Amino acid sequence: MFRILKNIFSKSDNSQMENLIKEGALLVDVRTPAEFAEGNVKGSINIPLDQVANKIDRFKGKKYIIVFCRSGNRSAQAKTILEQKGFNNITNGGTWQDVNNLINKG
């Protein structure tokens, strides 16, 4: 239970996430397609939370993966799902705006 709460409420250090982005992390927006269409991070892919477990192949072979959503809640759930599937290179990026701001920084 603590691990679930920790994943939901903890966000990564922004400098660490910035480095992962620079190193080519796979950026995965787990919001719905409609939400994604309203605004998204350049270069990100949309895999809605309810499809994450069925699209494991999209994550295989990626050095780093950053998942994000509207509030950080669904991305925390996606991180947990992926960790349960054996991935250990997942970062909860929080909101899509947080990730977008890091990419557009400078």
From TrEMBL:
Q: Which InterPro entries match?
A: GlpE_sulfurtransferase, Rhodanese-like_dom, Rhodanese-like_dom_sf
Say which domain of life the source belongs to.
Answer: Bacteria
Q: Which residues form the Rhodanese domain?
A: 21-105
> This protein is called what?
Rhodanese-like domain-containing protein
Q: Could you read off the lineage of the organism from its UniProt record? A: Bacteria, Pseudomonadati, Bacteroidota, Flavobacteriia, Flavobacteriales
